[in-house]
Amino acid sequence: MDLPLVTGAWREGDPVGARKFVDLDRVVLESGDQLPAVRVAYETWGTFTGDNAVLVEHALTGDAHVVGPVGPGQPSPGWWDDLVGPGRPIDTDRWFVVATNILGGCQGTTGPSSTAPDGQPWGSRFPAL
After folding, report:
1. Is residue 6 part of a domain?
2. Predicted TM-score (pTM) of this structure
3. Structural domain total, the chain
4. Most buried pick, 8, 36, 74, 86, via CB within 10 A?
5. Is there a domain that residue 97 lies in?
6. pLDDT tens, residue by residue, 65-94
7. Domain holding 6: CATH number?
8. Contact at 8 Å (CB) between 103 and 38?
9. Domain assignment of residue 104, yes or no
């Protein structure tokens, strides 16, 4: 019997919103634990010109949705709308901004709610980070 999900985690099959994804092969963690594959969710703003990238990492939100409205696949608005965008301090007319969802996060990057190689959610088996 499938139990209902009790998490707000983004899952495969949910609307992707503005997310993009990159899939990585095996990742070895500092602890020596390994993940056979990792998907990283990210969003971008602006135009990449080869030397204008800015990486925005987050500590509090666990979400790469830095800028933009609520919508399908995006349950909350961007958390830095006042700072990132055309004419703002991180001006996307000048800078190409990339924000990733952290490893172990719940908004598209591989984490405890992701499917493990055995077809079940990683859950508490997900390595400590």
Report:
1. yes
2. 0.86
3. 1
4. 74
5. yes
6. 999 999 998 888 998 999 999 999 999 999
7. 3.40.50.1820
8. yes
9. yes
Q: What residue numbers bound the domain in which 100 lies?
A: 1-116
Q: Which residue type sits at 58?
A: H
Which residues is 45 bridged to in the sheet?
97
Report the chain's terminal Cα–Cα distance, integer Å: 31
Cβ count near 61 (within 10 Å): 17
Query: Is there a domain that residue 125 lies in?
Result: no
For tokens 């990492």, name the residue: 57
Could you give the C-alpha distances from 128 to 31, 32, 59, 78, 124, in angstroms and in order? 8, 11, 17, 28, 9
Which residue in 92, 129, 95 sits closest to 110, CA to CA?
129
CA dihedral 97, 104, 113, 34 (to 10 degrees): 120
Distance separating alpha carbons of residues 107 and 64, to the nearest angstrom:
8
